[in-house]
Target: Chromosome partitioning protein ParA
Amino acid sequence: MHTIVLATQKGGSGKSTLAIGLALAAKQAGFTVRLIETDPQGTLSNWQRRRNADDLVVEPIYHAADIEPRLKMLADSGLQLAIVDTAAGLSAATTVAIRNSDLCLIPARPSVADIEATASTLSVARAWKRPYSFVLNQTPIRGQRIDNAAGALAEEAALDLTEVLARPLIVMRNDHQDSLASGLAVSEFAPNGKSADEIRGLWRWIETRLELEATTNVLIDQVMSAADGMLHVAAEHAADETTTLAS
Ligand SMILES: Nc1ncnc2c1ncn2[C@@H]1O[C@H](COP(=O)(O)OP(=O)(O)OP(=O)(O)O)[C@@H](O)[C@H]1O
Ligand SMILES: [Mg+2]
Model:
């Protein structure tokens, strides 16, 4: 199971909207998906109440201690994707969610305040060595503001932006607000619209990134076990030589 977490200290940056949009985009791409709500504000549960369908489960888990065991149970049950929405700020629940994630998505609007607010989330993801990406959300269609914001995020992470800025950027459009209000995801509300296109594109970017991380982990495991085997052989060899010398 892949677990992705949407987290940032800044309120209103689009964590819940993106969680819903990505959940539906992944579902439409063939994944089994569950939305996990760790934010007592209840944006996802309220959205689900407005939705006249039970095809996408929103599961509230507000206690930090319940998150890890529940994710393990969901993984054991064969679920393919858990998307965890978190509250603004940095709570115990958010830290646990990031610690258990395969990818931490940090949404930011193209404003200095939003970009500065990514720092604490970034430090948690780094402390637990979890992969992370920024998502620039609610951007204008074009303009200098976007380039400035992208540059500032790269500085914040001290990394090449192509690695850490998810694509495409998500433009500010009414479709996102109207779909949230009607209990739909943007790809259901206006399937042929630009916002739906962007969210589907963002899901494809995330999917590729998750696959890359999974492949890297498999390779690391293989290298570690090969190194382990070589050490074992070398140790046996050294023991043989000691026995020969002693006799
Ligand atoms: N790309 C977008 N275009 C237009 N409106 C957007 C976009 N993304 C989010 N919004 C709107 O911005 C508002 C805040 O979004 P959302 O609730 O998803 O943020 P949040 O980070 O989850 O907030 P909180 O920190 O309070 O949980 C909502 O009204 C949402 O519909
Ligand atoms: Mg929210």
